[in-house]
């Protein structure tokens, strides 16, 4: 077999130890890897590189397209950018795939039957990091959900399910509240699901869905989520399966993919030959499947399962009465290596059929909905920073700015309508949304009208923070209404 070039980073803390153990097992199982080692993490940050990754690393990743990465330590203090976010965004790693499996009765868990794969959207949602302090009292974070981004991740989840003989894909959103953003994610899930009639699909509101996932994970199979819910619930899922120390993950893009453990660099355990290499090792197994070395992946994974069920455990999962031997990082790796070729008896052996299974991206071209929709601006929300009185006083003052075809229709504060006819009990912050619409019912509004309105707002001495255009798409409102 020809060697596959991969980029490897040994990271910080326990990183170097668990990477050595991982590579030793993979190679003993027959992996054919041509390794290009790069520097990332603390040393690189402290040498003055705020992204924590040396420039040469990007060339290496562009060449190999496969990154096996140990955890790093992000130095305390400001100015350091998250390395993971940099790599994810630079290379468009849009899918985070995290299998969460319980190894009952060999690793303690309340959920003996659990085999869930979390597929998390990795680029959008509130993770754009687009935030503003808008007034003395109010801050804002922008949540962006796009049609192409969502189509890609939802299709990826169904393709993953099909390749891995999974029976069901579940989607979680909060579209009863966020009807436009989470509503789009849910809508696209409903659009794409029928293309996969062999796979069951369901949707839960994320709160009750999360509760069910934590309570009865055996009822879930593949779960696809927007970024924030996925971030939170993938840790919950890994933890309830047994241990965050036992989960690996894949970050998949159209051309480049990154594989890692889900835990951090555990600096207090570093250099003591104590750490469990299993999370990174399982990331390595995902990588082998990704690069098509499926038989090797299967051999390595089954040897690891055999070791686990023989009670050979590192300190973090060692339990008197269940475990047989407590091993250090190196000895655990040797124990796995000596079992290459064996299959577990109690735990289910894995099978990665050649050409199937795994995490590769097969949704390179997202099918976007190109049908031209008619977009029409029908109003504008002007946000004000204002502390000088009651909603009725603001309503009276801002109504005076009506004209040129625009009129104030409502004022809301933190999403609740406070003018006209507000309730005196409603708490008002210093952050006001003044909604202007066309005087002609349903009429279009031109940019020039908005610019002139803003000139009148400024002239009247108001501190406007921002505007949001109100647009209809094929006659459907593309904006939310305030809570009455
Ligand atoms: P952590 O995951 O490093 O450690 C949490 C706990 O789990 C600790 O008690 C640790 O001893 C234990 N643990 C973690 N992995 C283990 C393993 N393989 N074997 C045995 N025990 C293990 O989280 P933290 O302490 O919050 O973070 C430490 C550092 O790691 C921070 O600098 C953080 O920024 C960084 N971090 C990096 C990544 C990454 O590179 N992907 C992810 C998370 C955290």
Textual characterization of the structure:
The protein contains 13 helices and 20 strands. It has helices spanning 15-28, 42-46, 55-64, 83-90, 147-163, 181-192, 206-215, 227-241, 278-290, 294-309, 329-337, 391-399, 447-459; strands at residues 4-9, 33-38, 66-69, 95-101, 115-121, 131-133, 139-141, 168-173, 200-205, 222-225, 248-252, 257-261, 312-314, 325-327, 375-385, 406-413, 416-419, 431-438, 463-473, 476-477. It has a 10-stranded mixed beta sheet with strand order 2-1-3-12-11-4-5-10-8-9, sandwiched between helices. The N and C termini lie far apart (67 Å). The model has no long low-confidence stretch (mean pLDDT 93). The structure holds nicotinamide-adenine-dinucleotide (NAD). Nicotinamide-adenine-dinucleotide is lined by residues 14, 18, 71-74, 84, 245, 260, 263-269, 275-276, 279, 316.
Task: Note the beta-strand portion.
Answer: 15-25%
The largest pleated sheet is described as: 10 strands, mixed
Which second-level CATH architecture of the largest domain applies?
Answer: 3-Layer(aba) Sandwich
Bound molecules: nicotinamide-adenine-dinucleotide
On the 0 to 100 scale, the average pLDDT is 93
Number of extended strands: 20
Rg estimate, integer Å: 27 Å
Tally of domains: 2
CATH homologous superfamily grouping of the largest domain: Isopropylmalate Dehydrogenase
Spans of at least 5 consecutive residues with low confidence: none
Query: How far apart lie the N and C ends?
Result: 67 Å
